[in-house]
């Protein structure tokens, strides 16, 4: 079956994990019954799209017709024109995920032709024409399960079946005996052909979908420093009406085996509105943020040298002659810079209404003399900030707001510094490097584990310390995405 079939399942699958020992995942994804229903509808729509206009094998038979003779009848170009599903459901349970379609109808068209030969009519006669077949009460069911296999999801087809109920034939032209032959001798074959066609789509479709799952990355690169581990941990938990998947969710130092960040169609910024229930609930533990903090800190990514300032006040010791006389006395007319470094991994805590961030930085004032960098003073700054989480496209982002900061002169080789000097250096460091840098990182955000081809819609954020939950509906980008991004699969 075509790749279309699988996309639907991908969505279901993106939620699972493995291994007997219970490991902890720091991102949990719950697909609610609403989400499962949505996934099921996409699956059914895509499957129908892949079946419609497919041609069934031709059927031929020789039949002895009373008063007519021996007729050789051939049905060809048997085409499923359309399928209408009146009812369907998805349920999860101990055995797996069941999708059931009941009471579907399908219209088929076909060409018939025959030749009759008998001792009465030695020359033989033949005729041809078309017919339509209406299949009613078509039932389709399948059961799949999801298993964690070394951090990726494996989709297993456990059971499937297709059953044609009623079948009626309408001929355009042709003799009355032929109609009777079609009803008596061919009905069963047409029904089986439809059942086979549908079963084949399912049989071929599941492994293809599974292959697609295997191609999902285990890590997503965030930037040159960090990657996000989106390996599944544990097996998916199937409960009455939902599926829960656990994802490792921690930032790691970027290594070389990376997959670029997943494709997202631009322009879809979800609006935080609309009531619950939502299709999915993606919860991120504050350890996700902590791990990011540790990775960036360890990679020395939180360090900046400032040698040019908006007001140019720092460039030369001469500029500081009046405020810091000692500095000018020891290093007359030397260039200066400011070395700003975060001194410990920023502490990130999810609270009831936002995310609290505390950051400690060291500001080292350097004098540049004869090609040498001479640290002359160090100011420590403790910053308390908060961050309101937002959803932009399929990422969790935010904007840091400075709440307050306190300063302390750690050491100085140029005597005691005026409070005004300390304040001005500190706020310069915050305004010119720290906050803009952190905000640019935050703007990039943490990509949420949404399957390619899907996008969040009407997301809402809930703070339930130590978790942040993003409850959202999902829209399917549809064939546009499929054409451009899944073509390689089949
Ligand atoms: C499935 O197809 C039906 C009929 O074309 C449409 O109304 C429905 O919105 C589709 N559902 C999804 C989830 O694409
Ligand atoms: C099948 O054809 C009949 C008549 O030709 C039509 O009334 C019916 O709507 C069609 N069914 C579907 C599923 O399109
Ligand atoms: C599942 O639903 C059934 C009946 O609807 C209920 O008896 C059972 O306790 C539920 N199981 C769980 C795990 O929620
Ligand atoms: C990603 O997480 C999985 C599951 O927790 C773990 O086994 C794996 O080692 C992690 N990968 C990296 C690169 O840290
Ligand atoms: C989302 O899931 C978490 C558990 O992972 C749960 O604590 C929280 O209540 C859920 N939020 C909503 C709005 O359903
Ligand atoms: C900046 O200061 C840190 C210590 O606070 C030091 O490790 C680092 O080497 C300094 N960077 C430069 C370029 O001097």
UniProtKB/TrEMBL annotation:
Domain Lipid-binding serum glycoprotein N-terminal: 31-256
Keywords (A to Z) from UniProt: Glycoprotein, Signal
Signal peptide start and end residues: 1-20
GO cellular component: extracellular space
Record bears the keyword Signal: yes
GO molecular function term, any single one: lipopolysaccharide binding
Domain Lipid-binding serum glycoprotein C-terminal residues, every copy: 274-479
Pfam families the UniProt entry points to: LBP_BPI_CETP (PF01273), LBP_BPI_CETP_C (PF02886)
Biological processes per GO annotation: reactive oxygen species biosynthetic process
UniProt name for this protein: LBP/BPI/CETP family, carboxy-terminal domain protein
Native organism taxonomy: Eukaryota, Viridiplantae, Streptophyta, Embryophyta, Tracheophyta
This protein's encoding gene: 11429997
